[in-house]
Structure formats: structure tokens, C-alpha cells
Amino acid sequence: MPRYVIERDIEGAGLMTPAELKAVSLASCRVLAELGPQVQWEHSYVTDDRIYCVYRAPNEDLVLEHSRRGGFPVDRISLVAEVIDPLTAE
Question: What is the pTM of this model?
């Protein structure tokens, strides 16, 4: 299944409390349950003013629908072409 990276510009994202991050996570999981197993959230990276989310979905439209239903901003969606890591060098 294709993997996508979603960039969400959220001012002060890195200052969110554990309770706020939990609330966002719960909202995301609620929407994922509504959409069914076709859309999967792998994980997210929180930086100062942006959250990068990694999702698997059959198409970009389902990723956008997840964001729409959850009220999450979407500034860019990128289809992952390849994943490389230190083992790639071997």
C-alpha cells in the first residue's frame, strides 16, 4: 500500500503538552476507526511549528478525508517513492 508524508503547519506544535498530543492522537484514531483499515497512521514527528505524519493509504483522497474529518490542517502531501536507511548502503 502506498505511504504518504503529510506536512501540517501548526504554530507552537513543539510546545504542545502531553495531554494536548494525546487529544490529537485520540481524534486521529477515532477518524481512522470510522474510515476503516484502508487508512493506517504509522507515526508522526513533532517539530517546533510543524507535524510530519506518515500514513499508508490506497490513495491521497483517503488521506485528505482523514484530515478533513479530524479537522487537521494539510499543507503538503507527498507520496513516498522509496525508504532508505543505513542498510541501503550495504
Answer: 0.91
